[in-house]
Amino acid sequence: MALKNILIHPDPRLKKVCEPVADLTDELRMLADDMLQTMYDAPGVGLAAPQVGVISRLIVLDCVKDPDSAPRPLIMFNPEVIAASEEKNTYEEGCLSIPEQYADVTRPAEVTVRWIDRDGTERQEDFDRLWATCVQHEIDHLNGVLFIDYLTPLKRQLITRKMQKLKRERARD
After folding, report:
1. Strand, helix or coil at 61?
2. Which of 61, 68, 112, 167 would give a disulfide with 46, using CB separation of 3.0 to 4.6 Å?
3. Cα dihedral value 39, 93, 108, 110, nearest 10
4. Domain limits of the chain?
5. Is the pLDDT reported for residue 1 higher than 80?
6. CA–CA separation, 92 vs 83, rounded Å?
7. Which of 86, 33, 93, 95 lies closest to 58 in space, CA to CA?
């Protein structure tokens, strides 16, 4: 397994709409494993393929935060929300591509998601609380949408400037 570099906003690859995965290859399975390792290492609760420069509909997530609970890593190829509750929830979201920046985002409180798992099996599950927020956040990445796109233009601009500065600083190091 190899850790992947996580792209930092602004990067044009983060704004692209990803292509569906037509054929589940060993290469894609390895990418999914590497993404999980990268996500845990970051540390984060979700990661989408475009965040590591791959424009494919693949996300990984694990929202188990309790150190005494077993991890529950999920690998989702071609995930799609097929149902969403009327009820909304607001969570303070962050993003591995927008480090150390957080903002409240309101999304459906519960969603039903369908996807293809690592073995090529179609799966469907209902998610709520943090899991619902995370899976929606990651699916947004596959559509070129970042959590800051839900903010006012002024807040979005402010965060983008901070990220540009961070990228300049990292380039100098």
Report:
1. strand
2. 61
3. 40
4. 12-172
5. no
6. 23
7. 33
Handedness of CA 4, 39, 8, 26 (dihedral sign): positive
At residue 120, what is the residue type?
G
**Residue 71: CB atoms within 10 Å:** 11
CATH fourth-level superfamily of 12-172: Peptide deformylase (3.90.45.10)
Radius of gyration of the CA atoms of the chain, in A: 16
Locate 134 and state its tokens: 């995370």
Supply the residues annotated as catalytic. Answer: 138
| Percent of the chain topping pLDDT 90 | 95
- DSSP alpha helices (H): ranges in the chain? 26-41, 129-142, 153-172
Q: What mean pLDDT comes out for the span 125-131?
A: 97
- The C-alpha atoms of residue 51 and residue 11 are separated, in whole angstroms, by 9
Contacts for 164-170: CB closer than 8 Å, 24+ residues apart: 164/10, 166/8, 166/99, 167/8, 170/8
SS3 sequence of 93-118:
EEECCEEEEEEEEEEECEEEEEEECC
